[in-house]
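Re: weekly structure request thread

Next one in the queue (371 aa):
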Amino acid sequence: MRTLRLLLEKEFRQIFRDKGLLPVIFILPLIQLLIMPLAANFDVKNINLAVVDRDHSTYTQQLVSKIASSGYFHITGYHNDYTPALRQIEREKADIIMEVPAHFEQDLVKENKAFIYLAADAINGTKAGLGSAYLTSILADYNNEVRLKWLPAQPAAAGTVDLRFSNWFNPYMNYRLFMVPGILVLLVTMVCGFIAALNIVKEKEIGTIEQINVTPVKKWQFIMGKMIPFWVIGMVDFTLGLLLARLVYGIIPVGNLALLYMFLAVYLVALLGFGLLISTYSDNQLQAMFVAFFFIMIFMLMSGLFVSVDNMPGWAKVIAMLTPVTHFVEVVRMIVLKGSKFSDIQFQLLVEVMFAVVLNGWAILNYRKTS
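Done, posted below.
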């Protein structure tokens, strides 16, 4: 233990001696946590709508007013013909065209049916799909309002279904509540993953690795001495991120903090083992940085942070399940937002333990110590 203690003292002195590294470890992640949730917002609002009105009736005006007051649409043009509306789409000043045909009100009153045509700019598939869905929902609601005006004059028909729903765990559908815990995981992953990947290879570049190799330090002691300081840093960064999330975004974990930190402790062991494994294979810091960037980018994109894992194809789901970040993002959201208990996350914890054992064992075996 004395050997391990001396190695830890050496590592902590090296970390705090580097004045340029400390802001990267502690300050930059907090700044990113302040900025990224504001940009990483998939709520589709302020959709530009061009209206082609060939009817100019009272019903059309009521419909357009209802759409404009929904808070999702911005009316960018009110035209008599389709051509100027299409030009707005081509110039990217409109996302959707809604065309109200001639005799819309007359057909609705006399024939009890009328048609409205929608054309969406599908270059941005997400915005086009959600915008069309919002507009369809508003049109359906408007259709029900029109029918209710006529129902008192008609005999009661079949019963209607009154649909009521509630949003659990995020009642106001605040997207930041969903994104901030995931972004916090991302920042801890980037900081600890990159620094761990550069650690051993830095010793190779400056030549101190040869001095360590001729000492009686065992391989597992060397790896543990490299890992524990960044494990502590990961814990501190995560704690600062939780405090910032509470102070700035008002996010208070619903679940048990001890359970959250227990999972974090295991996750950091797995992540740092992965970084140290990259470092044992690399010959210089540039090579280690690019290899770490390659894998961490895959971890980020396939972790479920931006795109749900359930929506991925089968082969992508397999890859996502084979990354430790995926399970940690899921667990952080479960504990922070849902208040999940140990029984709910025990499978993910078992997977992280397997990652930690395999990656660190691999790193220890691959570290070549010559005497």
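Residues 2-40+172-366 form one domain. The longest strand covers residues 47-53.
Next request, please.
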